[in-house]
Amino acid sequence: xxxxxxxxxxxxxxxKKWQNFWNKNNTFKAQDFSKKKKFYCLDMFPYPSxxxxxxxxxxxxxxxxxxxKKRLMEGYNVLHPIGWDAFGLPAExxxxxxxxxxxxxxxxxxxxxxxxxxxxxxxxxxxxxxxTCLPDYYKWTQWMFLKLYKAGLAxxxxxxxxxxxxxxxxxAREQVxxxxxxxxxxxxxxxxxxxxxxxxxxYADRLLDDLDLIDWPEKIKTMQKNWIGRSEGIEIIFEIDFxxxxxxxxxxxxxxxxxxxxxxxxxxxxxxxxxxLIKGKKNSSFPLGKSTIENKKEIEKYIEKxxxxxxxxxxxxxxxxxxVEVKGIKAINPVNNKEIPVFIADYVLPExxxxxxxxxxxxxxxxxxxxxxxxxxxxxxxxxxxxxxVFPFEEDGILTNSGVxxxxxxxxxxxxxxxxxxxxxxxxxxxYYKIRDWLISRQRYWGAPIPIxxxxxxxxxxxxxxxxxxxxxxxxxFKPTGKGKGPLAKVKSFVEVNCPKxxxxxxxxxxxxxxxxCSSWYFLRYADPVNSKEFASKKKIKHxxxxxxxxxxxEHAVMHLxxxxxxxxxxxxLKLIDFDEPFLKLFNQGTVYRQGVKMSKSKGNVxxxxxxxxxxxxxxxxxxxxxxxxxxxxxxxxxxxxxGCYRFLNxxxxxxxxxxxxxxxxxxxxxxKTIKKVTEDIEHFRxxxxxxxxxILINQMEKEKEPALSDYQLVIKLLAxxxxxxxxxxxxxxxxxxxxxLEEWPSYDEKIIKEEKVILIIQINGKVRxxxxxxxxxxxxxxxxxxxxxxxxxxxxxxxxxxxxxxIPDKLINIVV
RNA sequence: GCCGCGGUGGCGGAACUGGUUUACGCGUACGACUCAAAAUCGUAUAGGAGCAAUCCUGUGUGGGUUCGAAUCCCACCCGCGGCACCA
Length: 817
Known about the structure:
By secondary structure, the protein is an alpha+beta fold. It has 27 helices and 34 strands.
């Protein structure tokens, strides 16, 4: 073998060494109260599944690690922690299958994943590791619950909820995807159950408005905006003519401009008016229906049918509208006193608005379908501008058939009609939201118990703070019962407790909290992870928070990211923290695909980090994670592509033998350009192009006869955040005594970057025909002369007349003939 | 249906605010080294015509604006992600 290398690049040999070195020397440990500027860099903490992480999971962690390490070299005091989102269904389901306690299997999974992350060379502050399933942690989750409870933001209510028959628990609305359970894809059922909620709805406006304060991807902001779903409009009072009395029915609309086109009203089957008219349920707002409703039986039948529909059936029947008229009552359109019929139909939702709508078939798709089916009147009141009318026309236009409002445009008419009604006390301004309160109770075992006690005498009582945590008991039978109560209800020693008020025998709440509650505040705990007196000391929170940079998957857009913002605002209002938004900047890494589908265990297309570590080392994996493509875009993992990054590292390694410690040579322009590019590209998450710039530089230095040692050292620094092990090895082998991460990030000189000569492109009619090298800053006339003197150009200019010459300084000259 | 993102070689992808399309890497072909292979190094690599200089065509499709368009505008097709009877 002619290999003249003294030592070939052997990642297996060097990587372990430096991982231990950094660990021993606390290289990546965050300093509380350092005088340096702080930088809090956070990854969405992993769920410790037994399967461990695959290379797809490592992409986001690699990005944040590069940023954290660069910041460290730039002189920041960096907090880059990691922990475990350790409660939750998968561990529990695994426990049910195997009989192994989730505490045991989770601990094992954590150990495994921790090792995976350690071997990748990620610079976490391991002293701040947290796990949400440990009593030290969930004590404070329970404490947070009590804070919300005392602030009136946690309450128990009987409500229609989503129930998963496979997971045997209720779910939050955010966890129902297309009528199916987010976890197991089972169709959810609607049930009417008493459950715990957090009042996220009372923060709807702030959650919406404060999106302007944060640097997040527009996509996520839009998703949150849509989820919150704020609609401004008015509630219009329709008088209902009923037997010998009259009463008011409020209806919400955002389209007051279409009021003259309202030809009927529709009530949700669950509307209280229906209940009082048909079922005789007492209600202060509405009279009891006596025998005046002519088709009571028909209505009852319809309601019964509507209720039995599952979520999926309702979605499937989206286009097919059904309903039934309430015969015996009429409504009065307040704007023209027209009598119109009232219907009951399940396309009107009970939970939104007032549960009743004014139907305008000419200008609403759903009303149009319904009106057509039941032969109801359709009156056009909005005419499109410069178009012929096609029903339903849902855009803004010019009013017609609308009395004194004729000829107005929609937006003006909305205000005018609203004012007209408000003045006469027939309407009021109103805002409705799509977002619902967050259902947080779960009838499951593996979660933080809800700290509430029920006493027969004293009623519902919060556990005293001093009695926290309410420990999750170790039990053998984790199986959910599916009968409205979780497995904890079977544990007598857990359930039976003395009433904190009267000391008589009482019962604990046996539901546990949604794991998203645990993850709604974990970023605060990293500031002070072992505090047993507070969830974190105020001083430390003030020092570290808010998070400067947060990275994770986009799938948490309306769950974790919304919940965490909600928690932050609540804690701010309770004066426990003093900032409004938890994550100043958010970045979503792109998903990793392989063989055309998202990499996942269930698809059977995962590549394990261990395999890559063995074959090429952690540095190669890190480089490939970033080289694959733009950081925020989904991209395909190529087994063959990985090797390119390995070859690059080998080149870097071999270059060490070639560099000469010769000084005072002329500054390396390419190097300065690369420093600039790498510095800026990392700032903008363009890791792929940063790395390609380093490749270009290394290729060039390889070709030089005597590349300078000082240049080489700078290149190694640029490479260090991306490929830390090889960089540290080379750095210290060159006689440097301290870690490369304690060194300064390289700077560049704009003067050196500035080109003296530039390539000027010569175009004929916008097509490239020639190129010449010229002095930078050449004038238009000089450039013209030089260009026209070229043989290749003469060919074109001799035959044709020159019409125009366009000159872009230092770039191109375009001759139009 | 609505909202958002995307469509560039055989593949992953470059191309800054309109100015050399295909950087960097993979793959492929040929060559060097080798008894041989691997590794490594070198050369080539959008398609088409030509011995060649050179020319033509090319950034999903069709139009437009411009001296000049992957980039801007209009219409459409395809893929991905989100929302989904929200009045």
